[in-house]
Amino acid sequence: MISQEEANLETNLKSKESSRFFKFFKDSDVNWGATILLLIGSLAILFPLYLAINVALKSPQQLAQSIFAFPKKIHWENFTKAIELTHYFRSFKNSSLVTIPTVIITLLTNSMVAYAIARNLNKKFFKFLYYYFIAALFIPFPIIMLPIVKEMSFLGLDNRLGLTILYIVYGLSMNIFIYIGYIKSLPNSLEEAAIIDGASTWQIFWKIIFPLLKPINATIAILTSLWAWNDFMLPLIMLNERKLMTLPLVQYVFQSQFSTNYNLAFASYILALAPMILVYIFAQKWIISGVMKGSVKG
Questions:
Q1: How far lies 262's CA from each of 73, 154, 256, in Å?
Q2: Would you say 80 and 93 are in contact if contact means Cβ atoms under 8 Å apart?
Q3: How far is CA 223 from CA 151, 226, 246, in A?
Q4: Which of 30, 68, 126, 129 lies in disulfide reach of 120, CB 3.0 to 4.6 Å?
């Protein structure tokens, strides 16, 4: 039996340990609330990714036994079969021929339009343009879907070129909104100094403003790439020929009337996802870097 003194001593020790524990969290410089939220958010992203990889590496028999356990035998042939069934390289080329021109033209044209509006918002015409573009954000796509399809078909643009044009046009409103907010934060003193040196508006934009847009260009490029690469609805209603189908469309091959071949389907999903991960890894350094640091001396 434990005596009363020993019980009191044990209680006091536990109380001291508990107070030290809470004091550590209280005195620590770490924002534990934000850290816990980040951990939860990371798990919410990593766990589905783990499941996708896990399913892609299993056979149907292993998948029937357990969806969570990592496979004892890895079936790399799932990826080979997925490549064959989806004609992966053809679909990859189609997605690339749509996404790459969309991103390049979007960055070049949208940044110029946004710069013209941002530096002339005090004029009625440019202010009207700004609100006109913003208003387009509130138009639901299903309302204009049928007229767009009929118009593009009438013009003979129900192909990759037409799809690229639609991505550039539909992304214009949101991109203009993001660009203008960023351009307004750039100091006018850089442009004023260039004007004194005799630079034209065209030279000011390409030699001064556009290089300073690297962080926001990276952001727009990633958002546009993800949208154009992963979009399912527009290619579905625009592309009628199987040889023109993009990667999201060819995932239909794994679905039958009564079942879905999940291990091959998830292998194909990972193959389609991999290029976008590389794009983010390449572009994220410009998002977090301080390009503006030291550009203006106070």
A1: 17, 39, 11
A2: no
A3: 27, 5, 18
A4: 126
Q: Structure pTM?
A: 0.78
Residue predicted with more confidence, 141 or 89: 89
- Domain ranges in the chain are 4-65, 78-288
**Strand positions, DSSP E, the chain:** none
What's the CA gap between 165 and 62, in Å, rounded? 45
Q: Is CATH 3.40.720.10 correct for 78-288?
A: no
Any idea which residue has 């993001």 for tokens? Answer: 178
Model pLDDT for residues 181-230, shown as the tens digit of each residue: 899 888 888 888 888 888 888 999 999 999 989 888 988 988 899 899 98
Q: Which of 138, 163, 292 is nearest to 238 (CA)?
A: 163
**Mean pLDDT comparison of 2-16, 93-107, 253-267, 280-294, highest-scoring range:** 93-107
Residue keyed to tokens 């003194």: 5
Contact 82, 88 (CB under 8 A): yes
CB of 88 closer than 8 Å to CB of 254: no
Q: Please compute, for residue 178, the number of CA atoms within 13 A of its CA located in the half-sphere on the CB side.
A: 20
- Give 5-58 pLDDT, tens digit per residue: 555 555 655 555 555 555 555 555 667 777 888 888 888 888 888 888 888 898
Tokens of 47: 């766990």
